[in-house]
Amino acid sequence: MALRPILVAPDPRLKQVSEPVSEVTDELRRLMDDMLETMYAAPGIGLAAIQIGVAKRVIVIDLGKPKDEPDGDDEEGEASSKKEKRDPDPMYFVNPEIVWASDDLVLCEEGCLSVPDLYDEVERPARVKVRYLDYHGKRQEIDCEGMLAVCIQHEMDHLEGVLFIDHLSRLKREMMLKKLQKSRKRETVG
Ligand code: NI
How far apart are the CA of 186 and the centre of ligand 1, in A? Predict the structure, then answer.
């Protein structure tokens, strides 16, 4: 696995529409491994391939799962290691499609690794059903609510070249982009 640099707005590559994946190959799995490692290192809870400059419809998410939660299909049986931290719970989505969205909306504060250190509230459907291919190329469907619903919709926006700041007013968006450019200049100078 390898860490990849994360693109930061207003990098024009982030506005690209990503291409569907024709087949889940070992090469694609290597990309997903790199994405996960890059996301963990950032650290973040979701990453789309375009954020590391690869215009493919692939996203990874890890919201973690509580350590104490009994988990039927978990065979690790690590009852001894009780920490405050959550267990890793990596999720891989290839060619994700929203096949249903709830009418009720939820307002949630979002941030983005490509819009570092800036946060604002975005309104989205509270629940969505997503169809996708998993890490092994198997067709799956998942009902998402809470953080997962917010996160998956945020990441799927990236596949269309849309950032969370594109959901804000033009004034707010331009302020945020100005801040990003300022902090980037400081980094180049320093
Ligand atoms: Ni993002």
Answer: 23
Q: Determine, yes or no, domain membership for 1.
A: no
Structure tokens, 15 = 């506005």
Active-site residue identified among 145, 155, 174, 187: 155
Mean pLDDT of successive 10-residue stretches along the chain, which has 190 residues: 93 98 98 98 97 98 81 54 74 98 98 96 98 98 97 98 97 94 78
Residue 48 lies in a domain: yes
Q: Active site includes 76?
A: no
Gap from CA of 27 to ligand 1 centroid (Å): 23
Distance 79 CA to ligand 1 centre (A): 34
Q: How far is the CA of 47 from the centre of ligand 1 (A)?
A: 6
In the chain, the number of structural domains is 1
Task: Answer yes or no: is 165 within a domain.
Answer: yes
CATH of the domain at 129: 3.90.45.10
With respect to residue 4, please indicate whether it lies within any of the assigned structural domains.
no
